[in-house]
Automatic annotation (TrEMBL):
This is Type I-E CRISPR-associated protein Cse1/CasA. NCBIfam families: casA_cse1. Residues 567-601 are annotated as: Disordered. The gene is casA. InterPro entries: CRISPR-assoc_prot_Cse1. Pfam families: CRISPR_Cse1 (PF09481). Transmembrane segments: none annotated.
């Protein structure tokens, strides 16, 4: 495999292999090249990758810019909807794609002598040194980047097939670690054989938000924002390969020289060459393999441009802006990419993804609190939501990397996929309000369980579990609520603006959330020692407060009623029930304080 267009190097799942199930049928995987994947994009459901972070790299560095550079992008919402509803590229579009791929085919040779794809020909160090191919692989041990449970050490050879090398090459341009890089001959900024101050790859600075459709064709369109025609100097990296001239004038990425500059537009930022790389192939008994590489410094973005489509944004509070723009400091934009938080399910950040009205959310950035606005892509999808089927199964993939030790190592990879109702992208709609209410309830329930645990620990004479150390019961509850929230997200696709149907969905959610919350609370209460029944008095700021089991439980149940109002109203409207039996794990001497009915009955 040497040419990315016509040789097979991607694995794609067919979308029509299960009869009668339409788009939702899971077909077999097929090995394909870029040409077939694009021309038959409606036949494939998705591409398979070794690591979730490879997918946005492949789409951004290759698939999306080819389509936009060959066909242009839709000028407005009406044109975008027409192309999207077509479901496949038209014969005329296929002809244009074929002509484009034929005209640029020589630029997609992975091991081309003069213009290897996404590399610098004859790139070398002053001592002609190379490093192992593990340098490209985020999950492989190399230098300081040693995964905790890796069975491979830096001394082990890692032979990459051409297909693997191509995928990790694209991944490196998007996600590479920061810090010192090897100095390349021809780079005027090299000092003592190295370059310093290299940032992480451009996607490593974002929390990637990537809409996903039922087919590769739909996913491509969902990731192409409609708008004005691109600028004349906004070109993908394979059309910026001039070997001569000053890099500041040519913007070439085919030489060891690099620069720090602003992005010229969508194609430029998608195919940003954050590193200068050369793959070193060799023949082995197993065939052609990449065992050595050269990775040097590449272009640096001045800042994340506002036309970056694959991230949500944080609008800094006035206080934060003041700190950043103090006297003598360089002016900094108040808007910055929002990164995903490890250990938090993707739906816990939906308040940012649903912030479609940029102006309104910017106002929400108060003196002390930051505001949000959603990604460019979700904003565009929100603008056309009424022209698409209400129950369209839009998915949103969230990916990110957490770096450690001055961003020089990969600590963890974030990935989540959540269903998102199209109607939720209407900030004034019923579904958006329902979702935000349910998410707020989930967070409040977790806080209530944590408060119950804290009160019991104070009654026992110990301190509450710190928020940043150990696992608190609220974390356990959020994990238990995760499938319920995802079910609610999928169910609200069919609600539309039907208030009664939305209320029924929220009522069902509250009943199930209440059951899960009580299960976790019972686990907390079952650990109560006998001394907690009499309690303990704590004096703080001249005021006495009594902590005891009965008070903590009563306060927790009252808090649940305040959070889950529909559930509480149903219980109060029902006939007087019998008292809930004691938990068998609770001592018989425990004073029982609640007469709330069991939701399990």
């Amino acid at each position: 495999m040497c040419n990315l267009l016509d040789d097979v190097w991607l694995s794609a799942r067919s979308s029509n292999s299960v009869a009668g199930e339409g788009y939702r049928g899971l077909g077999a995987f097929e090995e394909v090249g870029v040409r077939r994947l694009l021309l038959e994009a409606e036949r494939f459901q998705d591409i398979a990758v070794e690591l979730p972070t490879q997918k946005p790299a492949i789409y951004r560095q290759l698939l999306l810019p080819i389509v936009v550079d060959a066909l242009g992008r839709p000028r407005d919402a009406a044109e975008w909807v027409a192309v999207f509803k077509a479901g496949a590229f038209s014969p005329e579009q296929c002809d244009k794609l074929n002509a484009y791929l034929d005209g640029h085919r020589h630029l997609f040779d992975l091991f081309g002598k003069d213009a290897p794809f996404a590399q610098v020909a004859r790139l070398r160090t002053a001592r002609d040194e190379t490093k192992g191919s593990a340098l490209l692989v985020a999950t492989a041990a190399t230098g300081n980047n040693v995964p905790l449970f890796s069975s491979r050490s830096e001394g082990d050879s890692l032979d990459l097939t051409p297909a693997q090398a191509a995928r990790w090459l694209l991944h490196t341009h998007c996600w590479d670690t920061a810090a010192i890089k090897t100095g390349a001959v021809g780079d005027p900024r090299v000092k003592a054989g190295k370059t310093t101050g290299n940032p992480v790859g451009p996607l490593g600075q974002l929390g990637v938000v990537m809409p996903k459709g039922r087919t590769v064709y739909e996913t491509l369109l969902l990731n192409i924002p409609f708008g004005q025609p691109l600028l004349s100097d906004d070109r993908p990296q394979w059309r910026r390969r001039g070997p001569n001239g000053r890099v500041e004038e040519t913007l070439s990425c085919a030489t060891p020289a690099w620069q720090a500059r602003a992005s010229r537009g969508l194609l430029d930022v998608w195919t940003w060459q954050s590193r200068r790389i050369r793959l070193v192939p060799e023949e082995t008994p197993s065939g052609l393999r990449v065992t050595q590489v050269v990775v040097a410094a590449g272009d640096r973005l001045d800042s994340t441009p506002d036309h970056e489509p694959h991230t949500a944004w944080i609008v800094d509070s006035a206080a934060t802006r003041g700190k950043k723009s103090g006297k003598g400091k360089k002016a900094v934009s108040p808007v910055r990419p929002r990164r995903h938080q490890l250990g938090r399910a993707g739906w816990r950040g939906l308040n940012a993804l649903l912030a479609v009205d940029r102006a309104g959310e910017q106002i929400d950035a108060t003196d002390v609190r930051a505001g949000f606005h959603t990604s460019v892509l979700l904003s565009r999808i929100g603008a056309v939501r009424e022209r698409l089927p209400q129950e369209y199964p839009l998915q949103v993939e969230l990916t990110g990397i957490a770096y450690g030790t001055q961003s020089s190592i990969v600590e963890d990879v974030f990935f989540d996929e959540i269903p998102l109702p199209l109607t939720a992208l209407n900030p004034d709609g019923i579904v958006c309000g329902s979702l935000l209410e349910a998410l707020s309830q989930a967070e409040s329930l977790a806080s209530a369980v944590n408060s119950l645990s804290a009160d019991l620990r104070r009654a026992a004479g110990t301190e509450p579990i710190p928020w940043d150390k150990g696992q608190r019961p609220g974390d356990t509850l959020l994990h238990a609520l995760d499938p319920l929230v995802r079910r609610l997200l999928a169910g609200l696709r069919t609600v539309g603006e039907d208030f009664e149907q939305s209320e029924r969905g929220l009522t069902a959610w509250e009943q199930k959330a209440g059951r899960e919350t009580w299960k976790v609370a019972e686990q907390v209460l079952s650990t109560a020692a006998p001394g907690l029944f009499s309690g303990r008095t704590v004096t703080k700021d001249g005021k006495d407060r009594v902590y005891q089991l009965s008070r903590a439980e009563r306060h927790f149940l009252d808090r649940m009623d305040e959070i889950l109002t529909r559930r509480a109203a149903l219980r109060k409207a029902a006939p007087e029930p019998q008292r809930r039996p004691r938990s068998p794990s609770r001592p018989a001497t425990a004073p029982h304080t609640t007469d709330r009915p069991s939701d399990e009955s």
